[in-house]
Amino acid sequence: MAATDLNTKEHPKKPRILIVGGVAGGASCAARARRLSEDAEIIIFERGPYVSFANCGLPYFVGDVITSEKSLLVATPEIFKKRFNIDVRTQNEVLSIDRENRQIQVRNVLTGETGAEGYDALVLAPGASAVRPPLKGIEMPGIFTLRTIPDSRLMKNWISSNNVKRAVVVGAGFVGLETAENLARLGIAVTVIEMLPQVMPPLDPEIAAALQEHLVAKGIKLHLGDSVTGFERGSVENTIVATTKSGAGFESQMVILAVGVRPETALAKQAGLEIGSLGGIRVTEHMRTGDANIWAVGDAVEVRDFVTGEWTLLPLAGPANRQGRIAADVIMGCDSSFRGVQGTMVCKVFDVTVASTGVSEKTLLRHRLNGKDIPFEKVYLHPYHHATYYPGAKQIAMKLLYSPADGRIFGAQAVGEEGTEKRIDVIAMAMQSGSTVFDLEEAELCYAPQFGTARDPVNLAGMVAANALRGDSPVAHWTDAGITPSFILDVREPFEFDSGHFAGAVNIPLPMVRNRMDELPRDKEILVYCAAGQRSYYAARILRLNGFSARSISGGIATFKAQKGKLV
Amino acid sequence: MAATDLNTKEHPKKPRILIVGGVAGGASCAARARRLSEDAEIIIFERGPYVSFANCGLPYFVGDVITSEKSLLVATPEIFKKRFNIDVRTQNEVLSIDRENRQIQVRNVLTGETGAEGYDALVLAPGASAVRPPLKGIEMPGIFTLRTIPDSRLMKNWISSNNVKRAVVVGAGFVGLETAENLARLGIAVTVIEMLPQVMPPLDPEIAAALQEHLVAKGIKLHLGDSVTGFERGSVENTIVATTKSGAGFESQMVILAVGVRPETALAKQAGLEIGSLGGIRVTEHMRTGDANIWAVGDAVEVRDFVTGEWTLLPLAGPANRQGRIAADVIMGCDSSFRGVQGTMVCKVFDVTVASTGVSEKTLLRHRLNGKDIPFEKVYLHPYHHATYYPGAKQIAMKLLYSPADGRIFGAQAVGEEGTEKRIDVIAMAMQSGSTVFDLEEAELCYAPQFGTARDPVNLAGMVAANALRGDSPVAHWTDAGITPSFILDVREPFEFDSGHFAGAVNIPLPMVRNRMDELPRDKEILVYCAAGQRSYYAARILRLNGFSARSISGGIATFKAQKGKLV
To answer: ipTM score of the complex?
Structure first.
């Protein structure tokens, strides 16, 4: 069969589209391809027993929040057949790709039979597998990963048959923390061990801090900044001791490894397709590999970071779905391309929600170390999620990263309860169009007392940053308070000052600042702080207009505490 | 004193800024002006007893959700003085403006004393007053409006001293419905009378429909499409009968007039400032009136509609705050301008939230009638607010209006429970940057099972509209089903069809469509529908790819019902 570039629109009359992997990216690609062509022959090969299942729901299935396994199945092979005329072959593993002859070798996992299947277009959507590091004792029974429905079934069985009362979760990312919550819900005492000194590694530590506190308050034991070195039998029958680098040991009846996922690239490697430095399959913005007839989508591919332009891995369902659609479009001759990822994410653990979009400060600093400096500024704020005059208002801790040159938004992170992810969604949408902090300032958002304030937290984030950029109120950070020879002014009320303040700070409450200016130095910079940054902003404005050099410390005491600052 | 144009930056050394009105716009303006100048003399004149109070909270204060009157006071004259060095003069009515001499006449409401005050800059922020139509009997005791704290206090006293068991609310907008809910919360039987045949006049009726149903389910009696003509004494002592155009009478112990607000323009008129055709003060994008030294902000001014470019009135706190800041900026010589209003709004009544941004279809049709046609297309959808595999997923009814030329978003409306206003906020942010439905399709939003789906409702709205614009799936509406000589195909399952369908529709369930195409006509258009629009989209794609002329009816049966369509 002559090589036909499908993208030239010279389609074979009935293109044969083979898709390897049938969860988010593969399933979307197949369904979209069918909507673009009734003639195409579309076959999904899935190694596992299920296609299109909701793996984001697995921790909740373990915790009996989701009670029916069936509800995790977004679609079944029967639905694919009836609704989309798509042939789904589960328990069929694709062994190799013969690019020259455009064929794949497939093995039926149940019967062991193998056979060849020819293709006009091949889409690799193999996903990613849970990392199982080669640690001593890793193969002991009772050590699980949670990535598939059978994984969750094994865990549930183990919990009931061993009457599990204590568990160790290794890794404090999404899956680790969601699993910890769900095990706790079952009455299991949970210890989470995390290599980094914070939970939720994608976030900056001072934003993760509130979640960390909440986990502890909910009875989760956290062991941070230490890594697991291996597993041993415990003193009691069927117990496992997770040992760590620091020499600690944590005994429990089950261990959940939640240390991330790794792109499934065996097939791509075998076929000689390019693999990126992060270990994912390299594709163009059309999701095409170096082979004009092979596409790749989902957790297995590297994608471009929207902010930095660098390659990244982002194994999330939303982008995988979009990539699947785009691959189908391109295969069928439509002009579609993937715009990269912002990394928008949310995670709720117990009552606290953390959400983020764009890059973190950690990411920007890592790029700086690698010689790719993207100058940035940041602001912190702690606004209430709705009007304080309406019952139930709670604070959201927010961080906004932006360009000091033009105010373009680089990223935002938030932690709080209700309405937390809403603010990140709004900022994610703003970032998509290249909006600036000045645009956030001007955003016209929903306001009623139950939902927000006349100045929404998103507006406030924009205002604080815009005031800094305009030079009205240049921003200072707690790190500045440590290093510059400055005068530290606390403008809270005396009772607040007395309950704990920055060492060496002088207290002049905001209402007294105008009358007590003679107590302030004109020969050095005054760094002003308050509880969350609002009163200090007012005070810094007063001082600047009166000829002092003054900056407000962003986020105030709330941010200081989140940064593990010690009050005196 | 020589006329100085403050905008030329040739400020008087200590400009004297007088502000008439101290709620949202006036208070923001004052505080902002102070942050820009320590030298300016800033005085707020407020006719009422309070400044900066939360009038959006008043219905909840009436309903005892907000229990402390004090919590409605966002700021007091004392706070203004201590924090901002702003002189607030409550109970001081500004009687007239002497533009030539740059003076205002002020009367102390308590003492009756009058005096003149000179200004360099004058800011009019008089707000709007509740409309009290000149109906027969309107001055009877027991007939209230709810706009100020004293209003709410009067209502509360009346309710307790008259042991109110039945109330009539006239007007089914925000204030009317929020008040109805709060009266019901107090155990009062409430009837709402509305002139239009729908509740929430800013929304299109088919979106308001769900809220309407919910109100009825919660025991609120709705009397729509009829207007109140007057009030009479009732049969029982102290009761009031509201009589209507249709001849009906509604007896109750109290009446709340919630028929909108009217810009306070007496002062502006007296001063000969331009008043727009909608009755608001006309200002430039710098919030300046025709007099270079007089600005106006808030509910009293006309503003530009962001979508249509036409003048409009939008008496909401968010825009008022922004306008106040902008006026202060301009007065102090900064380059700020108001970008117009999108009309973003939200209202929660009992468990249901309605939210909207941009223009409604009603508004676009009104413009068309007035010869200012803005071609538009619309789509309906009914996505779940979070993943269906996670407990508690509920549908949101959404409507998206956009340009058929380039996909630019004109407006969006939604009604549902949790997460409703979030989707409108995201679309509001998208609209601000001129984004299109293609951008919504590509948006990368927060997804975890508690918050959304891998394809968020915002993405889905974008996809449906984008599929229509690309010609993949042109959209049809129920109105088309009534007028075109078409074939109506219902692709739901037989049990759904039997439970009620469009008169004359033929039922072929989606999974059978490919096998039963010979039953379908090739000589006329096929309009396909299902429950909410997804299956009909699939079916329409199948038919189109097989050479039929077919369109999916947007929103399916759910939208048909919302449009008061009758099923057979």
So the answer is: 0.96
